[in-house]
Task: structure prediction
Amino acid sequence: MAVVVAATRGWRLLLVLGAAGLAVLGAPQPPNILLLLMDDMGWGDLGVYGEPSKETPNLDQMAAEGMLFPNFYSANPLCSPSRAALLTGRLPIRNGFYTTNGHARNAYTPQEIVGGIPASEHLLPELLKKAGYATKIIGKWHLGHRPQFHPLKHGFDEWFGSPNCHFGPYDNRARPNIPVYKDWEMVGRFYEEFPINPKTGESNLTQVYLQEALDFIKRQKAGQHPFFLYWAVDATHAPVYASRAFLGTSLRGRYGDAVREIDDSVGKILSLLRDLRMAENTFVFFTSDNGAALVSAPHEAGSNGPFLCGKQTTFEGGMREPAIAWWPGHIPTGQVSHQLGSIMDLFTTSLSLAGLKPPSDRVIDGLDLLPALLQGRLMDRPIFYYRGNTLMAVTLSQYKAHFWTWTNSWEEFSQGINFCPGQNISGVTTHTQEEHTNLPLIFHLGRDPGEKFPLSFASAEYQDALSRITLVVQQHQETLTPGQPQLNVCDQAVMNWAPLGCEKLGKCLPPPESLPVKCPWPH
Result:
């Protein structure tokens, strides 16, 4: 094992690569960890990734002061499974965040879902608490809303946010409005105590989430423990919202307004870390849960840059994400890493920063990115693209092999539901589930990031890529034990009728009769 000693102005970091990270006798307090997770933000939404309006100066500066990852991926093209993967370091097929109600069907956690994060899964905040971390989640949880799935039962000390997407408004009879929680109990509901104007998109939620973050960081400055803050804001998820000060300020419309407010908020958070002299002891990572939701384009969706399709698909636009790492004094400034990265790597990397080893009783899919971050090393690894219970594609090095292709059904497409607007690649963006297991479609993502020109089956390049990818898939399948699927059963009786604390606010609603059914996942 290689040992690297990295000098810093405040303290010296001894890193044992591939082992216990910072767990060295007499080592200083491990760094704070701040994960900034966006919702439906696309690869092409930041100026540093080429967005032409250049309206993200703070995030662009963050990249200039840190490291940019142009080849960083979510673990799923949909929100809930991706978030479960981040916090467990495991593919959704392993941690149970998938459905078997249909072949290759995306599923998530609407408020009628019965399941949620299994108690058997070890979440990142739960493990970090063993190293003395104070933990908080701000924003969207999305791993189950029933009491047993509450984030404070899974390692978080504090929570301000919601269990589900901010869909609505509802009439509180056929369907309740989504609750907002402060720690254990609800403090109101979206469209009620926490208004979102459906017509104008005005909402102060991002400002509320920002203040929660600033207050938490200030409190930790006075404490003796490192902190883990998971800032999971959702303004860029349709219905898109922004506060009055930002509405109408972007060249990109309302979606751009939301991005500008998030960029401003990130700038304020990083400035506070500098002002409190905490920057050099705080590792910050910015990314998104899945690609831009082009089905909401053009008014409420972002940009996936040169990549094909968007959210809900396993093409590059659905799973390749913006990603920036920032840790002044440790990560060299202005660097671009071509490491293939995954949102699951944030689990393993965070544990390494804390001096902890990943759980040894289960397969962990995330890599420790510290060698890439601190040394510029590149590690060979595959990226697996799952849609529900089906392995759709694999990327290894520059080559991506599709074993199945599908956008959505002809029935949905004829109704105007389009995950790839303006993009139609014959034989690739199919509206029927097409199997290519025997002869996968293989693309060279360096030459062809838009997945338009599959390699010739007869070429030596194709045969070489196929042989290497086939071996990786075989090895993956040999270690794969699918978790119990959590996203199969829905029941209107489990919706947010009577969340914890509702009685104190007079906000409890009578539930309907329980009637469990198979969740209908159309795509």
In short: Residues 42 and 219 are 33 Å apart (CA to CA). The chain has twelve helices and 23 strands. The first helix runs from residue 57 to 64. The first strand starts at residue 3 and ends at 6.
